[in-house]
Amino acid sequence: MHITEFTRALAERLPGWQPSSTAVPIATDPASDRIWDSGPLPYAAFETDGVQRSVLTHHWGLQLYVMPRPYRPAEYLGLPMLPANTSHQHVQGLRAPRGIAVPADPVRAAARLHRRLLTDYRLSSATPIRRSSPGHLQVHVTLDAQQRPRIRTGYLGAVSELLARGGFLLDPATGECHLPDAFTPEAARRQMTISVHRLRLQGFHITIPSPDGPRSYPPLARVAPRRGQQR
């Protein structure tokens, strides 16, 4: 079973997790630097030619690096990656959730991930995400060379809004939220406007660059429903 087929089959059995659409050779993969714990994987394995990985992403800003286990054709590896918006400095002094080997059977693999990794991973990620926050309820937006948004935030609520509702993806190489390349510039601007509005309604303060300097968008007050409109 190819790595993309395996991760798709895993995602079908892991609620909230989505597979990446393509596989990437691990020997040239910048995302390998964001692996939090490599478990039973020897570092020398990243120099192996012909081995590809896929990534599973959860809308809480968590990612699993999934790849065949070297020299063990009946096994894959599920390795926890640094949570969204974090770097290795944010996990210093913390116990890492342990990467594990799983059977090549997606049913048994999903059950083992549930039992031995995912809960520990979710609990362990809260502290580094909190450490990475740039300030109280702050969300900072930058623009790439194509003027497309790249978003870093240390709040699970903001990450979940972007990934679960805003159509954003989580870049495994940087930990930033970004829109799919298939979005046109107009569609990207439109989706960014919608997501910023939703985040402001949730109490977040948004900073966006502009030619005149950073623009600040404070939280929006929720409008109470009029009498007779309440349900």
Describe the fold and architecture.
Helices cover 27% and strands 22% of the residues. Helix 1 crosses helix 2 (106-131). By secondary structure, it is α+β, with helices and mostly antiparallel strands. The chain has helices spanning 3-11, 106-131, 156-165, 185-201, and strands spanning 17-19, 24-25, 52-58, 62-68, 75-80, 100-103, 138-143, 149-152, 169-170, 177-178, 205-208, 215-217. A hairpin with a 6-residue loop joins strand 4 and strand 5. The chain is built from four helices and twelve strands. Strands 1, 2, 3, 4, 5 and 6 form a six-stranded antiparallel β-sheet that branches.
**Largest beta-sheet details:** 6 strands, antiparallel
**Element pattern in H and E:** HEEEEEEHEEHEEHEE
Number of helices: 4
Number of DSSP strand runs? 12
Report helical residue fraction: 25-40%
Mean pLDDT: 90
Low-confidence stretches: none
What percentage of the residues does DSSP assign to strands (E)?
Answer: 15-25%
The gross shape turns out to be elongated
Radius of gyration: 19 Å
